[in-house]
Amino acid sequence: MADQSLPKARTPATPGLPDTEDTTAPAGVSRRRLLTTAGATGLVLGAAGGAAGYAAAPSGATPLASLGEERVPFHVKHQPGITTPAQARGHLVAFDLTAGAGRKEAAALLRRWSDTARRLMAGEPAASGDTDVARDAGPSSLTVTFGFGHSFFARTGLEKQRPVSLDPLPDFSSDRLDKNRSNGDLWVQIGANDALVAFHALRALQKDAGSAARVRWQMNGFNRSPGATAHPMTVRNLMGQVDGTRNPKPTESDFDRRIWVPESGGSDPAWMANGSYVVVRRIRMLLDDWEELSAREQEAVIGRRKSDGAPLSALSGGGETTEMDLEKTDADGNLLVPINAHARITRPDQNGGAAMLRRPFSYHDGFDADGVPDAGLLFICWQADPLRGFVPVQRKLDRGDALSAFVRHEASGLFAVPGGAAEGEYVGQRLLEG
């Protein structure tokens, strides 16, 4: 989704934790690991998500052996699934603690979940009761990410440890939120490049919840599969638009400040060090209305060319990464990028520098009785402070974004996602046992 490149693994900055996710690390041998076909050769391109084909594969295709064997480590400085390249399949699920379940039960649950996530991400079966759904597959870039909602802290008696940044989001005039599909005590994000691997993880974690927690809501998403294009590129959403241009990149000098909670010196509690805050929004796209527009009208709404994502100010030249000229006009003096174009309104330099790392999935939940698609975007964005990242941008969109007529915000959630677990730890241990 995002036009970002990941830094290579460096000397760990924190004892017991790699400094960053190494998505090119070779998979460990397991009974479920997919074996490469005899005589086949494949070159995994890591973060680009592509690979060179072998003789038996169609030209440009990614060998399944390479796709299946890509492994993301669980024990990292920042939880996996944030800067990991977007996967082809995703599941989002929120849980509420059951009546009587408190801090002790939550700690035991996070311990079980972390162990299961570590095993499945390594391509191993769950510790008990494995369903064999993913028996024949490798890790397939599986990631599992855990977060805590605002209500979690009251339920566990940890109100004093609740971050101020987790205060509820303000109301927006464009919201049409279903409370039953919003928020939650606990949040889990699952991503993988194989649908069965992703479902296997979803089912295993739901079973692990046992009597401690129940599912509040669950959503399924998808992206373009790695290797589906001739070369790595930003994905398209269901409106056909390139989605993820100008995403912050880990190589940028201010990326850490914008996305990660600092280890010290900030206003967040110590247990959130190296973590991030995620805003999750189910945004329905009114595709029937959108598709009535001409391609030229759609481009005016977004402010970018549909073909390649280049800004309209680039005229016949340039590309997706070409700098947008907000002042450029046509022969009649009209702005080439309309004043209410989505790309203009969301620019960090138009919002006091506000930035967030977008990592969404598309979704499609069927058609209603009139044949209208229930489809759109599972918008997921990461930032060190949602009040400085998501909120100012959404407020500005709320006041005059041309895209607002074609989307509907139907669910919302904000979750605190702590840093990664060190070897021998579980996610959230510093909160629950601190």
UniProtKB/TrEMBL annotation:
Residues annotated as domain Dyp-type peroxidase N-terminal: 79-223
Q: Which InterPro entries match?
A: Dimeric_a/b-barrel, Dyp_perox_C, Dyp_perox_N, Dyp_peroxidase, EfeB/EfeN, TAT_signal
Q: Which residues lie within the region annotated Disordered?
A: 1-29
Which Pfam families is this protein grouped with? Dyp_perox_C (PF20628), Dyp_perox_N (PF04261)
A GO molecular function annotation here is: metal ion binding
Major place of residence: other
Q: Name what cofactor the protein needs.
A: heme b
Q: Name one GO cellular component term.
A: cytosol
Show where the Dyp-type peroxidase C-terminal domain sits: 235-421
Keyword Kinase recorded: no
Question: What's the EC number here?
Answer: 1.11.1.-
Q: Which reaction does it catalyse?
A: heme b + 2 H(+) = protoporphyrin IX + Fe(2+)
**Domain of life per record:** Bacteria
Where in the cell?
Cell envelope
GO annotation, biological process: iron import into cell
Q: How is the cofactor bound?
A: Binds 1 heme b (iron(II)-protoporphyrin IX) group non-covalently per subunit.
To which protein family does this belong?
Belongs to the DyP-type peroxidase family.
Protein's UniProt name: Deferrochelatase
From the broadest rank down, the organism's phylogenetic lineage runs:
Bacteria, Bacillati, Actinomycetota, Actinomycetes, Kitasatosporales
